[in-house]
UniProtKB/TrEMBL annotation:
Pfam family for this entry, one: DUF7710
Listed name of the protein: DUF7710 domain-containing protein
InterPro entries noted in UniProt: DUF7710
Domain DUF7710: 7-58
Provenance organism: Snodgrassella alvi
Length: 72
């Protein structure tokens, strides 16, 4: 994986917009546990689309985690 700038983006189930953006997985994980949220947390590169990043790095998908009631 190339060294890039990243953020973690959380999208809550049933909500069309992004719910939160975090600088680290640890911060996101703690917040999701505290608030017992359900949705998907995705590590997104900055200044490049996720699709383009996957093509350039020969990856099938971005790192992501599914949460249910704050549990990964």
């Amino acid at each position: 994986m190339k060294d890039s700038s990243w953020v973690w983006i959380f999208k809550k189930d049933g909500i069309p917009m992004v719910s939160a953006v975090f600088s680290s997985l640890e911060n996101a994980d703690n917040w999701l546990k505290l608030n017992k949220l359900t949705g998907v947390l995705t590590k997104m590169p900055i200044d490049i689309g996720g699709y383009e990043w996957c093509i350039q790095n020969k990856e099938q998908m971005l790192e992501h985690y599914h949460y249910e009631n704050g549990i990964r």
